[in-house]
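User: Let's play a game. I give you a shape written as tokens, and you guess the letters that built it. Ready? Here's round one.
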């Protein structure tokens, strides 16, 4: 039955991984340390199977049939010799092999970690102690920056770091000292111990990897909160990532794998959305549902030992019921909101039984409610950022959220070819339109038209870091079709490193100027510039 219990532990581990992902998102939106999500996931991956083993009466059971494979009786051309009946093969026969495999894999992993610890101890004896900017550190040849040791942790910096400027050295040392203050070496050692106990559980490996990332992200947040600047800190991360040296021991370090680097920089430069508390609440609901499903997952038991009165519930069915309940609650709330807005702005849609496709757009502010209601001809494709910008020019893709009301919430409320889209806006007048705003412009006026422009220069540092996004530049296009340099202003940018490239592009671009009554006039425009990695 060890095989059944191993599969049970793996299933619980993946359920708790869902909990970790949801909690990490919720804690990030709430502005809290995200490491707790993976501490809870790791603890639950051990606690639930242990409780099912120690307190079986508190858990439902799942009958696990143990099939037997009959062994054919041997035949002989010689007179048969009386012998005992051959034993049939059973899944229980795998228990001994699985125990040996479990023990060997745990010992191998323990040996790898022990060898790495001994190697680190030998290297520490060769590294020299030094005082860098008033802090005592160990200077290595090319290992670090990192923290090594549990009871007496030391900050390790590579020799090349001594040539950095004082601000970058300060940020580097602050990062490693934050690891020491948060007891991160102990936390990662506990994660390594979890892998030694269950090296065959892939969910645990993934949880420990995400724990390492969360530890670094939390440390980055504390360093920036203490006074570090995002561009300077991002540049330091790129330098360390380029020079990092592989070392086979789980120690908290500034130079984590390159796959972590992009996520860390993206987290630093991305602002929290305005709807973050709604997202945090949704994440908490998903996490609670996953915990409920994990606790209700029946523990394995041989079929001949399951009591007749026990009826094993289906874990998939339980999860489906939880999802359906959450969907119904959300759909009912959205239905009430859609009905209220339609009754106020477009009551005729609630009464129509047939008609052409219609898209109804509600621009709303979290504090003042709906500020713009726009009705357009329905589209067959998906709602995209470009389409939203055509309807609401003040929409900011990197900041504002939006969503399409589900068909389940609109069933019985409006006809099937009516779509309702909710868009979060900064605010604005309470305007009700029957077409996109562009259609309302006076016929005698035409805005400026871009006639030529160079390709935007993508900053090399940001390209290497995987940072992308849209920069919105405001400028006055004069009567000659050029942008006035004094009027150029960055309205929105995902990273300061894009600002100069976007400004240079606007100043180099050529426009057919705006015209009023056929005469060229000055015009204030906002130009979106996309920086993306193909």
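Assistant: Ready! My guess for every position:
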């Amino acid at each position: 039955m060890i095989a059944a219990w191993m599969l049970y532990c793996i299933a619980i581990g993946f359920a708790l991984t869902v909990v970790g992902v949801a909690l990490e998102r919720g804690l990030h939106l709430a502005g809290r340390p995200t490491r707790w999500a993976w501490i809870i996931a790791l603890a639950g991956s051990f606690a639930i199977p242990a409780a099912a083993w120690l307190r079986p009466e508190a858990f439902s059971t799942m009958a696990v049939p143990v099939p037997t494979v009959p062994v054919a009786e041997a035949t002989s051309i010689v007179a048969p010799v009386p012998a005992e009946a051959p034993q049939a093969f059973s899944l229980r026969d795998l228990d001994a092999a699985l125990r040996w495999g479990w023990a060997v894999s745990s010992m191998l992993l323990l040996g790898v970690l022990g060898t790495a610890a001994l190697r680190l101890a030998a290297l520490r004896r060769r590294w020299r102690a030094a005082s860098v900017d008033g802090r005592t550190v160990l200077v290595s040849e090319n290992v670090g920056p990192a923290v090594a040791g549990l009871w007496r942790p030391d900050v390790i910096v590579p020799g090349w770091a001594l040539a950095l400027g004082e601000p970058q050295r300060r940020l580097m040392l602050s990062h490693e000292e934050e690891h020491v203050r948060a007891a991160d070496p102990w936390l990662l050692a506990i994660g390594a111990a979890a892998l030694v106990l269950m090296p065959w559980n892939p969910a645990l490996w993934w949880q420990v990897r995400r724990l390492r990332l969360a530890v670094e992200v939390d440390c980055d947040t504390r360093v920036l909160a203490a006074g570090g600047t995002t561009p300077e800190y991002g540049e330091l991360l790129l330098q360390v990532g380029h020079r990092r040296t592989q070392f086979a021991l789980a120690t908290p370090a500034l130079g984590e794998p390159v796959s972590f680097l992009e996520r860390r920089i993206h987290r630093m430069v991305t602002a929290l959305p305005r709807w973050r508390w709604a997202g945090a609440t949704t994440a908490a609901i998903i996490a609670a549902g996953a915990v409920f499903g994990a606790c209700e997952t029946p523990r394995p038991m041989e079929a001949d030992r399951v009591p007749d009165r026990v009826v094993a519930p289906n874990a998939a069915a339980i999860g489906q019921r939880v999802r359906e309940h959450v969907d119904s609650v959300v759909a009912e709330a959205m239905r009430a909101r859609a009905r209220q807005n339609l009754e106020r702005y477009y009551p005729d849609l609630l009464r129509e039984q047939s008609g052409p496709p219609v898209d109804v757009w509600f621009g709303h502010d979290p504090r003042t409610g709906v500020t713009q209601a726009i009705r357009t001809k329905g589209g067959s494709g998906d709602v995209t950022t470009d389409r939203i910008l055509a309807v609401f020019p003040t929409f900011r893709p990197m900041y504002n959220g939006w969503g399409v009301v589900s068909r389940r919430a609109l069933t019985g409320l409006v006809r099937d070819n009516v779509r309702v889209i909710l868009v979060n806006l900064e605010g604005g007048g309470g305007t009700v339109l029957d077409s996109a705003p562009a259609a309302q412009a006076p016929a005698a006026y035409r805005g400026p038209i871009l006639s030529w422009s160079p390709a935007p220069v993508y900053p090399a540092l940001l390209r290497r870091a995987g940072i992308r996004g849209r920069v919105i530049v405001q400028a006055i296009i004069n009567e000659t079709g050029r942008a006035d340099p004094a009027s150029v202003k960055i309205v929105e940018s995902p990273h300061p490193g894009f600002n100069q490239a976007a400004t240079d592009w606007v100043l180099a671009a050529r426009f057919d100027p705006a015209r009023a009554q056929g005469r060229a006039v000055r015009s204030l425009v906002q130009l979106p510039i996309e920086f993306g990695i193909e």
